[in-house]
Amino acid sequence: MTGYHTLAETEKAMATHLKGLPIDMAAAEAVSNLYRAANIARNHLTQTVLKDVDLTWTAFVVLWVTWMWDGIESRHAAEEAAISKATLTGVVQTLERRGLLARFGDSDDRRLVRLRLTNEGRSLMQKLYPVFNAEEQFIVSTLSPRVRSTMTRGLRAIVAHLESQSDTRRP
């Protein structure tokens, strides 16, 4: 594939280009591998599971958070999916046309828009998630239960750290 480099090639290029710079190479490699693993896992799940039901990754995440919270404010769905409110609008319109999601006003504050899965949307997620999870299992299948647990704790620690500190790091 043109423009694609293996993990070993990427790490070798990093070591070459960053040599002599005052950086923490272990931190750079850890974050680089975190990013690379997240992207390759996302692409794998998109190609093996979501493509078959004509969902993008973003549409799946919007359905997922709406399903998990039994409905969600649109602004929170955008935050959870790490997308802008404008992008969410297009995703929601597509999911509405497909009969998977419904929008409605909040009973306490009419300025807020809430999202809720339709019966069809709930049914899709209940059928889709076991297939999705089978691929999640495949993704981590080379890791022992102990390594998975350690990895999960480490990733949770990163998430908790950034959730608690992200506002203090902005210029």
TrEMBL record:
Which biological process terms from the Gene Ontology are attached to this UniProt entry? response to stress
| GO molecular function per UniProt | DNA binding; DNA-binding transcription factor activity
Q: Where are the transmembrane segments?
A: none
Which controlled-vocabulary keywords does the entry list?
Answer: DNA-binding, Transcription, Transcription regulation
PANTHER family this protein is in? MARR FAMILY REGULATORY PROTEIN, TRANSCRIPTIONAL REGULATOR, MARR FAMILY
- Would the keyword Secreted be found if you checked this record's keyword annotation? no
- Stated name of the protein: Transcriptional regulator, MarR family
Domain spans labelled HTH marR-type:
27-160
Q: Which PROSITE patterns match?
A: HTH_MARR_1, HTH_MARR_2
Q: Which InterPro entries match?
A: HTH_MarR-typ, MarR/SlyA-like, Tscrpt_reg_MarR-type_CS, WH-like_DNA-bd_sf, WH_DNA-bd_sf
Which superkingdom, per the lineage? Bacteria
Key word Iron-sulfur present: no
